[in-house]
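2024-03-11 09:14:02 DEBUG pipeline.ingest accepted 1 chain
2024-03-11 09:14:02 DEBUG pipeline.ingest length=329
2024-03-11 09:14:03 DEBUG pipeline.predict start
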Amino acid sequence: MLGTERSRDRLSHVVDLHRIRDDVDVAAEDAPDQASVSLSPRDVTVGTETDVTVSVTDEQSGAGVANASVELPALGLSGTTDGSGTARLSVNATTGGDYAVSATAPGYHDASATLTAQSVNTTSVAVEPVTRTIGVGETAEYRVAASEYGAGIAAYEFEASLDNATTATITDVQLEGASADGLGFVDYVNDSSSVSAGAALADHDEGVIATITVTGDEPGTSALSLASVAVSDPVGDEYTIDSVTGGTVTVGGDTLSAIVGDSTPRNPDDDGTYEDINGDGRVDVVDVNALYENLDTSAVQDHTSKFDFDDDGAVTIEDVNSLFADITS
């Protein structure tokens, strides 16, 4: 009897092992397979519509998975794979970054791949105006401007330098759109013949990123060059800089003296004549009166070309009338 019971126990264990093995085999057959997702192309350009082929395959066999649902939820796109396991999505991303493309299919684990949208914004940066002529002790302002900035400008940096440090110096740099948090910098080097400047979190809707003031020191000419220029849009993508154009400052020996007060006359429109007689930064009837009251002084008559508004080679009452006509026209 004891031997018979032991035989029955052994048989029962064998049956249980077979059942376990059968259950494992059934579970293995029911387990989802692993799918793989690939994209062609994997990179697209922001603002450019691109057909992206999504391929869903069985990771083990490499065979295409038909009727898989593919989605690019961030852009509201979806599709279904054909018999070869491919689907096409027409992608037109508005911002740069990574986008998840997912795939689901019966009998498979969910799978995904990453599509990268890259911004390719281009611009040119130049000094404006290209040339300025000033006297010793006078100043000229140059704008550093980007030609294209459709995506916006949020950060920038540049280096500006004068190649003739005896002729002129950089005496001021104003950063446009620099944040109130002070995320901007202006570093003068080489006795103010060059400067490094930039700003982050800038906020402005114009292409001018900075204004550089140059002061004439001695007669001569100096190039104003730009280098290491970088401009970024609000999402952090850098513009591709197509070209960088510098300028020139010429310092003449014909130095003006103050006619009224302590400020020398200014040439606000850079046309060669100095309409701002009292140098207060405005051109108005006060300047007309200042020219009339000081018409015969050496400060005016020794610089005929600067105040010859009617272009007759002399400074007379007719120039007072011409200045008045320009202001009131």
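2024-03-11 09:14:41 DEBUG pipeline.report Helices lie at 2-30, 285-293, 298-301, 304-307, 317-328.
2024-03-11 09:14:41 DEBUG pipeline.predict end
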